[in-house]
Hints:
Blueprint: H1 26-41, E1 46-48, E2 58-61, E3 73-84, E4 87-93, E5 96-105, E6 108-114, E7 120-126, H2 127-140, H3 151-165
Antiparallel strand pairs: 1-2, 2-3, 3-6, 4-5, 6-7
The chain binds ligand K1U and zinc ion.
Ligand K1U binds next to strand 1, strand 4 and helix 2.
Amino acid sequence: MAARKIIKFGHPVLHRRAEPIININEEIVTLARDMVETMYLAPGIGLAAPQVGVSQRLITVDLSLGEKPDELIILINPEILEEEGEAIEEEGCLSVPEIREKVRRPDRLKIRGFNLEGKEIEMEAYGLLARVFSHEFDHLEGKFFIDRLSPLKRSLIYRRLKKQFGLTSPS
Ligand code: K1U
Ligand code: ZN
């Protein structure tokens, strides 16, 4: 396993829809393991493949930050089947450092995907776990948490990001 570099807002890979994984080969297994290492090192409680520069539909989530091996979730080609409720909580993003904002997201969701053995996994998530799945799924769609804020807040944050990363156009 090797930690990879987390790329930041403004990099084109983060702003496009990631490609479905067709074949769970050695490259995908290595990518998943490297993402877990990268997530723990950051530290973070979730990570999506585009954040390490790979435009593939793969996410990792672990609310325990590596403390409880049972809590690690690796999902290939995740799909959100159902969303319910609403919650507004503060969140951050490893690709948008130093910015934390209150974001409205579903409070419960049902998600389906495949594990590294190719077995179909379906699970329900509530609270923070639902939030992290939703956040990582957004990354696979080329979206950021700031896209869920009001237009005013979004443009204020964009101005800050422009200063920080020298961007020339909104996401
Ligand atoms: O995808 C990412 O950018 C990772 C992000 C996931 C996330 C966090 C909170 C709400 C929604 C999605 C992070 O992990 S940011 C870091 C973080 O939240 C954290 C870090 C150390 C301990 C506890 C939390
Ligand atoms: Zn993020």
